[in-house]
Each structure stands twice: as C-alpha cells, then as structure tokens.
UniProtKB/TrEMBL annotation:
Residues annotated as domain CAAX prenyl protease 2/Lysostaphin resistance protein A-like: 121-208
Keyword Nucleus: no
One of the GO BP terms on file: CAAX-box protein maturation
Record's keyword annotation contains Cell cycle: no
One Pfam family matching this protein: Rce1-like
Domain of life: Bacteria
GO terms of molecular function: endopeptidase activity; metallopeptidase activity
Official protein name in the record: CPBP family intramembrane metalloprotease
C-alpha cells in the first residue's frame, strides 16, 4: 500500500472533527433529549464511530495502521486499568479546581450523565456509558486524529488530540479532566502501539465515574438535577484544595510509576518526524469548532 494511504492529513482530520462536532451538538443533543440511553448509543456509533471508519475505508486508508489496531499483551491489559484508577483522581481534581473558578461567574450544573438507580440500569450504563465511548471515541481521537498529527511529533500529537477530545465534550465544567485523561490515553497508545489499550483505559475510566455516581446515589437522599451550590467558605475551599492536591500528587505518582512499568510494544520504533508544511487552512476547521464550543456554553450557562 502506498505510504500516503497510511496517514490521514491534518486538514482531513480537522474537517471531519468539525462535521462530527456539529452533528454531536444538533443531532446528538436531539436524540439524547428523546431517550438518553438510545440517544447515547446513536451518538457513539452513528455520529462518531461509523463516519470515522467509513471515511477511512472510502479514502483507502489502512485501518490497521491509522488506528493502530495491534495486539496487546496480558501484562499491558492488566496494567492499563491500574494506571487509569490512579489517574482518575487527578483528572477529577483538575475539573474541581476549574469548576471552583467558574462558580464565581456561572451557575454550576450536574453533568448530563444518567445515574443508574438499579443493578440492571448499572449494567446498561456500563455498556452505553463505559464500553461504547471507550470504543467509538478512541477510534476518532487516539485513532484518526492523533494519527494525523503524528507528523508533528508524538508530544504535539498527544497534546493536540487531547485538547480536541476535551473540547468535544462541549462543557466548560468537564474540560480539564478529559484533556488530562486524553494525554494519559495518548501516552498509553504510543507506548503499547495499540489503540486497544486506550479503549480499555477509557472504558475503565468511565466505569469508575459510573460506579461512583451509582453508589453515591444509594447513600444520598437526593442528587441535584438543576444547580449545584459550591462551598463558599474560604477555609473550606482551601482545605479541599490542599487535600485534593496532596491526594492527586500521590495518585499521579503511582499512575506514572505504573505507566513506566507498562511494557513497550516490540514493534515500536524511534520517532521519525515527517516533513510537513502546515498552513492556516489546515486549522480553519478548529476555528469553527471553537466558535461552536463558545456559543454552546454561552447558551448553556449564560442564558
């Protein structure tokens, strides 16, 4: 196969990203408002997964190479969930800090994620909220998008794809956490040379969030569905920040050590930067998604 068919261009990836962002806001928002679980499945498989895979197939790209559909070892499978378990509190802490800052300007609202109220709903949630995004969103972000930015170097590819991943959640309250976790998933993919590792990590991360919501619901008398009152006492906030920071440093350190212990792929080669002359045209679609992000959050929080 011609080498050019192994790498999607940055412009192609950004155009598809913009189109899928528009579809997510308008079509995804509509179907989710009708019935949340069905809507989420439509969002993941019809709006994200199908267009990405079809585009690659129609354009003649190698799915195996673009998406890094390579085998992973038993040890890698065992270590990835552990890395995510200890990375999760760091992402949650980053979200908390940002929400604390935002609370001075906007009304904080619960994230629009259904919280299971029974064991069957919890199982359904694991399929819809954990497994499906783990597959579909990884195909787009750690697959097509990160692969397209490879030519700029692995670090830039990880950072840019992670920012785009965070923005794709279209919620200021849930921005920094996904960006951080996107970086974790990107690092894991490059080290294992397999998107299956980030699928496992992403699915496991969402399962943790789902389980926390489910078990908190069992303990709590009520879960807020409208606005959330953030603590306003200065010393309470400072104490929460200090405790959260210390806990995040401990968890982050453990997660990093587990990442270092993660076996590298035998196929992984030295990074070779391709010659790429970026133009402003390559990034014009990102201007569109940025405007869409600003507009959507303005409607969500300020109107």
């Amino acid at each position: 196969m011609d080498r050019k068919r192994e790498k999607v261009s940055i412009l192609e990836a950004n155009i598809l990203y913009l189109i899928l962002g528009i579809l997510l806001i308008f079509l995804g928002g509509f179907v989710q408002s009708k019935e949340i679980y069905t809507g989420l499945l439509i969002t993941q498989y019809i709006i994200i997964f199908l267009p990405t895979v079809l585009y690659l197939k129609v354009k003649g790209y190698s799915l195996k190479k673009v998406l890094k559909l390579n085998k992973i070892s038993i040890k890698q499978i065992a270590l990835v969930p552990l890395i995510v378990i200890f990375a999760y509190p760091v992402g949650a802490f980053l979200n908390y800090i940002f929400i604390l800052l935002l609370s001075s300007f906007i009304e904080i609202k619960p994230l629009p994620i259904p919280i299971p109220e029974s064991s069957p709903e919890f199982i359904l949630g694991l399929i819809v909220i954990s497994l499906s995004p783990g597959i579909c969103e990884e195909i787009l972000f750690r697959g097509m998008i990160m692969s397209s930015y490879d030519k700029l170097g692995k670090k830039k590819a990880i950072i840019i794809s992670s920012i785009l991943f965070g923005v794709y959640h279209f919620n200021l309250q849930n921005l920094l956490g996904p960006i951080f976790l996107g970086i974790v998933f990107g690092l894991i993919v490059y080290k294992t040379d397999s998107i299956y590792s980030s699928m496992i990590g992403h699915g496991f991360n969402n399962a943790i969030a789902l389980a926390i919501g489910y078990f908190l619901l069992e303990k709590a008398d009520n879960i807020p569905t409208e606005a959330i009152d953030m603590p306003t006492d200065f010393f309470t906030n400072i104490l929460a920040i200090i405790v959260g920071l210390v806990f995040s440093i401990i968890c982050g350190t453990i997660s990093y050590k587990l990442y270092k212990a993660l076996p590298e792929s035998e196929k992984e080669a030295e990074e070779v930067l391709e010659e790429h002359n970026s133009t402003i045209l390559d990034y014009m679609p990102l201007l569109g998604i940025s405007l869409l992000f600003i507009f959507y959050n303005y409607i969500l929080f300020f109107k």
